[in-house]
Amino acid sequence: MRKQIVAGNWKMNKTLDQGLQLVSEIVNMVQDEVHNGALVVLCPPFTHLQSVVHLTKGRTNVFVGAQNCSDKVSGAFTGEVSAEMLASLGVQYVILGHSERREYFAETNAQLAAKVDLALANGLKPIFCCGETLFQRQEQDYKALVCEQLTESLFHLSADQITGFVIAYEPIWAIGTGLTASKEQAQEMHLTIRDHFAAKYGAEVAASLSILYGGSAKPSNAPELFANPDVDGGLIGGASLLSRDFTDIVKAL
Ligand code: PEP
């Protein structure tokens, strides 16, 4: 059985105090109200990670993730944070390849492959993001473009490394815009992604992938998105900053 996951990507939001308040609320609500076996992954800014790890210690369904890591092992790379450093804090997940990193920080598929390797080498589980722009959806072969992101960053991995991997399909036109992929659009892309992995690694490995949907997911649309057979949860941006909304999305799984 593949894992059902709701991950919250806080991006560059919340001071430490505000973040810890949010974590406390989510941890209590998730504990009291969610008994569906879903995993919750909280991805605050780097500065908050150690405190959030501390606050969530001992919770069996709440994990902590970073929003990025360096593609270098260590050394003279001012401002960078390595996968090894994250692992040393007790962080378990790391978001890689988010469209904002690809766009604003020019991250390439090849660089992301190096980040994935370092994350795995340090025992971190990547939440690997892929997705197309509105222009690509309307004018180009968007399915092929998304598959290319996956091929170039992940297909050097072994079947063992890919088993249980977490992918986040995030149509860029739906991130932070209020536009959500329809139930059908989400299922079509999630199945395309699973089939792409099946062609390389076989059906069993493809079936083990958790493929999350991201893009303006909220309590009102989460139930229909999550009802799709190939949607295994969500990567949530804006709605992860509100404890009630985030918990309601977890409950929708
Ligand atoms: C995201 O940035 O990963 C995301 C899904 O954002 P939002 O939910 O705000 O669209």
Question: Mind explaining what this structure looks like?
Answer:
The mean pLDDT is 96. The protein has helices spanning 16-33, 49-56, 83-89, 99-104, 109-121, 134-139, 142-154, 159-162, 183-201, 203-207, 222-226, 243-252; strands at residues 5-9, 39-43, 62-66, 93-96, 125-130, 166-169, 210-213, 233-236. It has a single domain, classed as Aldolase class I (TIM Barrel, Alpha-Beta Barrel). The protein is of the alpha/beta class and 253 residues long. Strand 1 (5-9), helix 1 (16-33) and strand 2 (39-43) form a beta-alpha-beta unit. It has an 8-stranded parallel sheet. Helix 1 (16-33) packs parallel to helix 2 and helix 7 crosses helix 9 (183-201). The two termini are 15 Å apart. The chain has 12 helices and 8 strands. 45% of the residues lie in helices and 15% in strands. Residues 9, 170, 175-176, 214-217, 235-239 line the site of phosphoenolpyruvate (PEP). Phosphoenolpyruvate (PEP) binds next to strand 8.
List the helices and strands and how they pair.
Elements: E1 5-9, H1 16-33, E2 39-43, H2 49-56, E3 62-66, H3 83-89, E4 93-96, H4 99-104, H5 109-121, E5 125-130, H6 134-139, H7 142-154, H8 159-162, E6 166-169, H9 183-201, H10 203-207, E7 210-213, H11 222-226, E8 233-236, H12 243-252
Helix pairs in contact: 1-2, 1-12, 5-7, 7-9
Residues 9, 170, 175-176, 214-217, 235-239 line the site of phosphoenolpyruvate (PEP).
